[in-house]
Write a structure and sequence with these properties.
Number of domains: 1
Strand order of the largest sheet: 1-3-2
Oligomer: single chain
Structural class: mainly alpha
Helix content: 55-70%
Number of helices: 6
Protein name: MarR family transcriptional regulator
Radius of gyration: 18 Å
Number of strands: 3
Organism: Nonomuraea ferruginea
Length: about 160
């Protein structure tokens, strides 16, 4: 293999992905800023909002966001001070605690989501046909399962087997 090939499609793939991510982040950030949220604040709130009971164990939230346990603690502390999240002890494991979306946190998401979804549609999903979007989502899930396998930790409610 010629390692000096600057037209290698692998370089193109990672370059395009980086450019798209940077462009999307820059275009989406003003909506978060207007709501007084950082990107990680929004990601934390949306992950809680989309989880069973709108709550996640702190360790699962750290895994999903890619933050360290101390990093997720700082984010949850900040969101808790703002009244958007509460921390609750786990009834079955004294060592564990849950971050739970509050009614104010749901209201914050309801404030941000209409414009956020309109922006996502304009900048990403609306540019693709239904078939392209299905393929794109399948490809992203395939890649995520390799690079961030714990990104869905705690997302499915575990129930006792009969």
């Amino acid at each position: 293999m010629d390692v000096t090939n600057m037209n290698d499609p692998r370089l193109t793939a990672i370059g395009l992905l980086t450019e798209v991510y940077a462009g999307l982040t820059a275009r989406l950030q003003p909506v978060f800023n207007a709501a007084g949220l950082s990107e990680i604040d929004f990601e934390t709130l949306i992950r809680l909002g989309r989880s069973p009971r709108q709550a996640l164990r702190m360790t699962d939230l750290a895994a999903q966001t890619g933050l360290s346990t101390s990093g997720v603690t700082r984010v949850v502390d900040r969101l808790e001070r703002d009244g958007l999240v509460i921390r609750e002890a786990c009834a079955t494991d004294r060592r564990a605690s849950y971050a739970t979306l509050t009614p104010a946190g749901r209201e914050k998401l309801e404030e941000v989501l209409p414009q956020h979804l309109a922006d996502v549609d304009e900048l990403l999903t609306g540019l693709l046909s239904g078939e392209e979007l299905d393929g794109f989502l399948a490809a992203l899930r395939k890649i995520r399962s390799v690079v961030r396998p714990c990104a869905t930790a705690g997302a499915v409610e575990v129930t006792a087997q009969s």
